[in-house]
Write a structure and sequence with these properties.
Helix content is 10%, strand content 30%. Strand 15 (309-314) and strand 16 form a beta hairpin.
Length: 745
């Protein structure tokens, strides 16, 4: 941003012509009031012609604004071509939205959102009661709909209280040279510079305001030699006089203060000695009892570089730091970065990448209180851009959401008796970065025959965990815990796990462990099997398996990856029948023997012009959509599979599905997480385009955590670059889609 760069000296030492839209002669040759009036007259004439001129110029500079790339399914996301110098692949994330009405043809900067999302407070150089950069605000009339379109009012100069009835006490003694405050209101604006403000809200209104200004400016404020951070607060029904914060400011440039929601921490930008070079981020802490601020401390080498770091903001929970930097490796001049607090220190910053960052300046990112939107300022070339720096918002993707602690509570019981195990169970939690192995407590039965949870562990959201529970004398069981998406703080995941006892030798009755008369046949053995496509060797989760043992026919449950398990007596003969939609059924006979380690039932596909010709719901469990390397655009060749899914959903109006995106392992887990989410979102968009209601389709990404193939060859990796479909039964949350053997609606 030009009025922030060049050492931040624009207010005192740079020529007045550096102000966008203000000439040096105009500022020096006219009194402030006449200069403002003349500027407004000229501006009115100019603005009448500017939209058409600006649109024509912008349209010519955007060849990518033409029609989408050929070969993509209608309605699906399309990955734009990238400049050769860009090192990071562009994902199909929604483009940032220009806020529209709050922006004007000059500069709009430093957005700050009220906790309820109703008010947008920002800095602007638009004409008003005062000269130069001042503080403004706009109201979103549709703020109650947090995911809906915004409805902004025309911006007004900042006057407190915001959109509330005036109060005779809402005043302070006016600084020398300031215009009259609006009746019953307070404004920090003067004829000087006021900008880069931060606010502490209570009860829907600001009670503290922090902003940057120069001392001894037209407003007559005192302060240190450089740029200063100023402060006013509302106490006892009255605003205090604006003053500089002596504990914070130095004889260098101190600016861009951001104060945490609880008022305890201040993050600011300064070029004072002791930094890494250029402008650095500094941190100060306030004693909430005395109100005294500590001396700012440098944020350290994990955050600061020998380049410039500016515009710090904190997420509402204080666990994520956003800032901008012109360090090498970015997309443009200033890029937006984020860092997460690990509990001890700030982690290494991460560039947010495109589409948030552009080839121009992208600064002052701030997260809405609900975590749904990221607001920021940018002078990017955009068809909706109104002039210099505009304000934008961007729907926050899942990979950027702040994690919360989820309490996993397990009640581990004997599956045969439904009572306590009597032994310790081993719980192994596996996730993408490692695993954790712990033991449960032994149950103690109370007089009411009820049991408390005997295992509990806090897990961080934003991940998928595989949980393996085992105990001596019992068969192990695997669970899936998917904690992706927006989860409330303190979320509880309580489950009861029944471990099946390992059966002793013998058996009887109508189970495969005995003969037709109930006599013992011998010790049983567990055999594992899988149903696969004979052409691709990929598993078929939408299949059914029947076991015939003597005169007994048993339906065998088939898992999400086409796997199943049998318990067969030693030396016994048995038959298996497997079938799946769009595949020829298969029946084979086996005899239990030590050499029989795994059963693979390979079904031959029935070649048809359209998948799922009979429209059975379980058919979609076997459908997959495949993608090119590092791409999330849906290929035209995948249209038949998408059309088949749409037909099934239209035939069964109560059916809901989960669209699951996957990747190969050719990049980092975090990158592939974003890519898998983009692929799932693209397929969901294609289904909506085909007439499926959006609320019937949930999309999720799994990075490379669930591969189909071991990736020994490029063909293996191609199989893993896919989207799959899972049916969601009524009253079943997303992420717990039923195994394919479950009946459809």
């Amino acid at each position: 941003m030009r009025f922030l760069k060049n050492g931040g000296n624009i207010w005192k030492r740079a020529p007045a012509s550096a102000f966008k839209g203000r000439s040096a002669s105009g500022r020096a040759g006219l009194p402030p009031g006449l200069a403002s009036l003349a500027a407004r007259v000229l501006l009115g004439c100019f603005l009448a012609l500017l939209p058409a001129l600006n649109f024509a110029q912008t349209r010519d500079s955007h060849p990518e604004a033409q029609t989408g790339a050929p070969g993509a399914v209608a309605g699906a996301a399309v990955t734009p071509a990238e400049p050769a110098a860009t090192a990071v692949t562009v994902l199909d994330s929604p483009a940032p939205e220009n806020l529209g009405l709050p922006n004007w043809q000059g500069d709009d900067y430093a957005p700050f959102l009220s906790p309820d999302g109703r008010f947008l407070l920002f800095q602007s150089d638009r004409p008003g009661l005062y000269e130069g950069q001042n503080l403004w605000y706009a109201e979103n009339k549709n703020f109650a709909d947090r995911l809906g379109k915004t409805d902004w009012t025309i911006p007004l100069p900042l006057t407190l209280p915001l959109a509330a009835a005036a109060s005779p006490t809402m005043r302070i003694t006016r600084p020398v040279g300031a215009l009259d405050d609006p009746p019953g209101g307070f404004t920090p604006n003067t004829q000087g510079f006021e900008g880069m403000a931060s606010y502490v809200f209570r009860g829907g209104q600001p009670v503290e305001v922090y902003f940057t200004a120069a001392p001894r400016d037209e407003g007559g404020r005192d302060g240190m030699a450089g740029l200063n951070i100023y402060f006013a607060r509302y106490r006892d029904q009255r605003w205090s006089e604006v003053r500089h914060i002596n504990e914070i400011n130095s004889d260098f440039d101190d600016r861009m203060a951001h104060v945490s929601a609880d008022g305890r921490w201040m993050y600011l930008v300064s070029n004072r000695p002791g930094g890494a070079g250029g402008y650095d981020l500094w941190i100060a802490e306030r004693d909430l009892t005395t109100g005294q601020w500590s001396t700012p401390q440098n944020a350290g080498p994990a955050i600061n570089t020998r380049y410039h770091e500016i515009s710090p903001t904190l997420s509402p929970d204080g666990k994520t730091l956003f800032f901008s930097s012109d360090r090498p490796g970015g997309f443009g001049h200033y890029d937006i970065y984020r860092s997460r607090y690990t509990g001890q220190a700030w982690a290494s910053p991460e560039n947010l990448g495109e589409p948030v960052n552009s080839a121009r300046d992208d600064e002052y990112a701030i997260l809405s209180a609900d975590g749904l939107w990221l607001y920021f300022a940018s002078d990017r070339r955009d068809l909706a851009a109104r002039g210099g720096l505009d304000l934008y918002r961007w729907p926050l993707p899942e990979w950027l959401r702040n994690p919360v602690d989820v309490l996993l509570a397990l009640q581990i019981l004997d599956g045969g008796t439904r009572r306590a195990l009597g032994v310790e169970a081993t719980v192994k939690i596996i996730y993408e970065r490692g695993s954790l192995v712990e033991r449960s407590r032994i149950f103690r039965q109370d007089p009411g025959d009820t049991y408390v949870n005997n295992y509990a562990r806090k897990l961080e959201s934003g991940r998928t965990y595989r949980i393996e529970v085992s105990a001596p004398g019992f068969e192990p069981q695997s669970l899936l815990a998917d904690y992706r998406g927006a989860l409330p703080a303190g979320a509880l995941d309580s489950r009861t796990v029944y471990l099946k006892p390992i059966v002793e030798p013998g058996g009887g009755g109508n189970q495969p462990g005995g003969n037709e008369n109930g006599g013992a046949v011998g010790e049983r053995r567990t055999l594992r099997g899988v149903v696969v496509d004979s052409a691709t060797n990929l598993p078929l989760p939408g299949s059914r398996v029947r076991l015939t043992f003597g005169a007994i026919v048993t339906e065998i449950s088939v898992g999400r990856e086409g796997e199943f398990r049998l318990e067969i007596p030693e030396g016994a003969e048995f038959r298996l029948h497997a079938e799946a939609p769009d595949y020829r059924s298969l029946e084979r006979s086996y005899r239990e023997a030590p050499a029989l380690r795994e059963i693979v039932l390979a079904l031959d596909p029935i070649r048809q012009e359209r998948p799922c010709p009979d429209g059975r719901p379980e058919c979609i469990d076997n459908l997959r959509v495949y993608f090119d390397v590092n791409q999330s655009a849906v290929r035209a060749s995948e249209a038949p599979a998408l059309e088949a899914v749409a037909r099934v959903l239209k035939a069964y109006p109560a059916l809901r599905i989960e669209v699951r995106g996957h990747t190969d392992r050719t990049n980092t887990f975090e990158y592939n997480q974003r890519l898998s989410e983009a692929r799932a979102a693209a397929v969901r968009a294609a289904l909506v385009q085909l007439g499926v209601a959006g609320d019937r389709v949930v999309s999720r990404g799994f990075s490379y955590s669930q591969p189909l193939a071991p990736e020994r060859t490029p063909a293996d990796r191609a199989l893993n670059r896919r989207v799959e479909f899972r049916r969601i039964l009524p009253n079943t949350p997303a992420g717990d889609a039923p195994a394919s053997g479950a009946a459809g609606p």
